Fold these 4 entries.
Entry 1:
Amino acid sequence: QVQLVESGGGLVQPGGSLRLSCAASGFTFSTYTMRWYRQAPGKERELVATISTAGGTTNYVDSVKGRFTISRDNAKNTVYLQMNSLKPDDTAVYYCNAMGYSGARYNTYWGQGTQVTVSS
């Protein structure tokens, strides 16, 4: 059974930090590209950050560059999103996403999301 379980969200003041985690199970984590998305109320889901299978390549949406860092630990089947200098505009539900092949089948998996609220 495939599972992506996010944790680490919460309420934080502007300028603060949070670290999101996404624990994966049920598939070969190290062969999947991992992404973090977010969705604010009334807005479309937005790709925030991507990390390659071995972690050597990362990409970010312009609005979070220099503030967010995506990383992964393939030994722990976990991907992280370190979020610093948080702004109210970062308020959203953050989702973990996995994309990759199992045999000949291309799969996409989603977590249930974790709420991040940036407010004073």
Entry 2:
Amino acid sequence: QGQLVESGGGLVQAGDSLRLSCAASERTFSRYVMAWFRQAPGKEREFVAGISGHTYYADSVKGRFTISRDNSKNTLYLQMNSLKPEDTAVYYCAASVRFGATGAGDFGNWGQGTQVTVSS
């Protein structure tokens, strides 16, 4: 499935916005279901948003985050608006062959993560 490299994380204040990017080296990027997960300290990795033929979101981010992809650039994005301190985590992108996948076990290829910190 190739290499995934996330970028765009940083330290922001509550209410701010960030856009994460995930660059894929795989030329068949467009064939995969792509998703964003996040993991806060002491917590399990959790699904945030996924995209295949449609987009789907965790309830905690619905209405604030938008996942998109540009298959011509082999790049996945996550636009995060109205950020909250509870959004603080390392964000990972991942690829799957399973349509509608939300479980971490369904994803076989992961990036190294990018840190997002939201201060109150």
Entry 3:
Amino acid sequence: QVQLVESGGGLVQPGGSLRLSCAASGIYSIGPMGWYRQAPGKEREMVAFISAAITTNYADSVKGRFTISRDNAKNTVYLQMNSLKPEDTAVYYCKAERVTTRSSGQESDYWGQGTQVTVSS
């Protein structure tokens, strides 16, 4: 059973930092991993993505402030968020693409349960 478990969300003041983690378990292989976010009343949007070859892609709104990284040995992706702004407030979701398990070679995408990030004074 594939699971993505996120951690690291919370309440932070503007200008502060948080580090999100997402650990994947129950997998055999995994492709790109990334982070999306969804604010109240808005559509889910891509924040940052990283390939298995460590190529990264960022939304314009977070470039220069957020850094995505991954530990392939631990099947874990991280999102370091600096200089946080109130508009960064959202539920952050981890996504893993092209995941296979030992019981199935079929590739599938999976989402984490989400972690709340609130930026407020």
Entry 4:
Amino acid sequence: QVQLVESGGGLVQPGGSLRLSCAASGSILSIYRMGWYRQAPGKQREHVATITRSGDTAYATSMKNRLTISGDNALNTVYLQMNSLKPEDTAVYYCSAGLSLIPRADDYWGQGTQVTVSS
């Protein structure tokens, strides 16, 4: 089992920045991939960014230029730096951990952290 705890969300003005953190505990040696997803009210959950144990990263095309995902080699903690935030970035951001490269139904999820972009 893997437990994930997100932090760093909050209220930020348009154009501002936030850094989200995801701390993993439990069977972390089995984790191969960690990522961030978000879900806005009335919308489906969507992929934001992913990082693998080997350091490979992937980003949502619509946000790629404003994001940086990073983590230590053991993926104990993963960070998501978000810059130039827009009101449409408002959502609950979830951390996810998986044992393989491809997302699976049995991936682990955190409880989410709210990000609100508003003036």
